[in-house]
Amino acid sequence: MTRIDERLLRELAPQVLGAVVRRYGDFGAAEDAVQEALTAAAFQWPRSAVPENPRAWLIQVAARKLTDQLRSESARRRRETKLALEIPPEENVAPPPDEAPVEQDDALVLLFMCCHPALTRPSAIALTLRAVGGLTTTEIASAFLVPEATMAQRISRAKQSIKSSAIGFVLPPPGERSQSIGAVLHVLYLIFNEGYATSSGKALQRVDLSNEAIRLARAAHQLMPENGEVSGLLALMILTDARRPARSGPNGEIVPLDEQDRSLWDQLAIAEGVQLVSDALSRGAVGSYLLQAAIAAVHDEAARAEDTDWPQIVALYRVLMGLADNPMVALNHAVAVAMAEGIAKGLALLEPLDRDPRIKDHYRLAAVRAHLLERSGKISTALGYFEQAAEKTTSTPERNYLLLKIARLRDN
Amino acid sequence: MKFMLMMHTPAGTGEYQVNQWKPEELRAHIQFMKDLNKDLREAGELVGGEGLAPPVQARIVRTQGGVPEVTDGPFAESKEFLAGYWIVDVETAERAYAIAGKASTAPGPGGTPMGIKIEVRQVMSAPPDIG
Question: HSE-up of B102 (CA within 13 Å, CB side)?
Fold first, then answer.
């Protein structure tokens, strides 16, 4: 299978599934049928040729699988052995009527369905990657480092929840639209983060979840080009991913933003992200993803760490704090204030966070305080907080970074 | 988030305590563990888990001066041993605690919940990049 075919298949997956669900109604069965059609294509196309109308081919194969399945359960066993024999000759596939607008809607409905708030987030993530992303259960399981059977159960539970909650294959009504979009964005955001969390180790054998999240966010952006938060999340991912080559050292250790070799940053990606941010900002309404993207853009546009426009970042964090009461945002705001207006001011802003149960025991609060104290020359006090942070983090690269930091400070 | 749930069992008098249970007590205990594993598997949360062989079979391996040395124990004074473990992938720490809480109620002699001590430790990962 060539790369082009693979990409084509995965782009077609949600369109085909959307069309089959629209026609037959049963989401769970349709999803299985489309996966089988994709498997058939992956087997067949490299041996003959990509059909002239690959989408129609897949829909027809999936529909046939589905009717088989609905007709009798025994068809399930036969189907597996006959998989390769059931391929329709290409000439039997009539070109479909022009249904482009329906196609677009189908993909969007599918995305809302897979990210529905009635599903647990792990279920929604797994289902989105399979049904919208066109990944196999094996690929998803290995990306999350869990056994395939575990991932298969997650997917089947997700489908069961869709069935039992009677989530229909329709666009959410306008009154619920923004909540539905919020749920979609949260799922894509979690996939992106997971990509980074699992990016160490045997990465070569795994699907890159960060790239997958970017691909899905691009698709969402195409479906909802006017939505500022969708643009914002896509931009945030692109601008964050642009720093990937610089953010870890040869042994996977974290390189903090101010020590990164900025010549390694992906300038094309930065340009794309910045463009997305400025387009979205010019359209008006500003949400939290767009603001985070704007902050990432300010960082990415500084050629050297000391060129960072910290007052601008402070201003953006203030707007972000006005949108929601989020202690992690308050913590980042304190860092920006320390850089823009002086360490003492930043340290003072940490004090209320010591009393906030949502963050007071988080390693990042200790780490930020340690860094600020170190910058103001209070090394021995800083050491104590670095040690606290190293004890509290659950991230191996972060802990290694903190332990190295402690060792270096002790040495001096 | 992945968590490791480690089941610590009282060592009793040095004997493998379970050897002295009645067959039906043992069967109820085994059934409980099988059901728990089935539930975790069906919830899409089970990453792995095993029961461990009795501590009399345990060996400590330690390499000093380039020579690996295999010894029994030191289990003589220890009051508890690791009897088994699960690795689960769950949404929150609270869910891991809930699973551990359930595992802790495995029935012992007379069908009484044992109140097994389960140590819950988060498995290290890499940090999230944004957020």
Answer: 14
In a domain, A208, yes or no: yes
Q: How far is B47 from chain A (nearest CA, A)?
A: 5
Q: Which residue has the higher pLDDT, A321 or A199?
A: A321
pLDDT per residue, tens digit, chain B (131 aa), is 899 999 988 765 544 567 678 888 888 988 999 999 999 999 999 999 988 877 777 787 887 888 888 887 656 566 678 889 999 999 888 999 999 999 999 998 888 888 889 999 988 876 554 44
Residue A10 shares a structural domain with residue A27:
yes
Chain B residues touching A121 at Cβ < 8 A: 91
Find the helix or strand (DSSP H, E) in which A403 lies. helix A396-411
Determine whether the interchain pair B128/A196 forms a contact, defined as Cβ–Cβ distance below 8 Å: yes
Task: Give the span between the Cα atoms of A145 and A134, in whole angstroms.
Answer: 19
Q: Chain B closest CA to A43's CA: distance in Å?
A: 29
Is A389 in contact with A367 (CB distance < 8 Å)?
Answer: yes
Asked, for residue A87, whether it belongs to a domain, the answer is yes
Residues of A in contact with B127 (CB under 8 A): 196-197, 254, 393, 395, 397-398
Q: Do B47 and A150 touch (CB under 8 A)?
A: yes
| In a domain? residue A172 | no
Domain match, A218 and A234 both: no
**Residue A162 phi, psi (nearest 5):** -60, -40
Q: Hey, where are the domains in chain B?
A: 2-122
Smallest CA–CA distance, residue B98 to chain A, in Å, is: 17
Q: Is B106 on the interface with A (CB under 8 A)?
A: no
Answer for the pair B72, B59: CB distance below 8 angstroms, yes or no: yes
Backbone angles phi, psi at A18, to 5 degrees: -55, -45
Please check whether residue A157 touches B, CB under 8 A.
Answer: yes
Neighbours of A202 (CB within 10 A): 9
Q: Which of residues 16-45 of B touch A (CB under 8 A)?
A: 41-45
Asked if B126 and A144 come within 8 Å (Cβ–Cβ), the reply is no
- Domain span at A117: 103-166+177-224
Read off the tokens for B110: 């007379």
Query: Do A282 and A369 share a domain, yes or no?
Result: no
Same domain? For A317 and A301 the reply is: no
Domain assignment present for A343:
yes
Residues 243-272 of A with CB under 8 A from B: 247, 254
Are B103 and B97 spatial neighbours (Cβ–Cβ below 8 Å)? Answer: no
Interface A:B, Cβ pairs < 8 A: 80
- The CATH class given to the B2-122 domain equals alpha beta
Residues of chain A positioned with their CB less than 8 A from the CB of B89: 122, 144, 146, 150
ipTM for the assembly: 0.71
Residue A154 Cα distances to A163, A164, A374, B24, B88, angstroms: 14, 15, 45, 34, 13
Question: DSSP letter at A144?
Answer: T
B31: Cα separation from own chain's centroid: 16
Residue with tokens 């699988």: A65
B94 touching A (Cβ < 8 Å): no
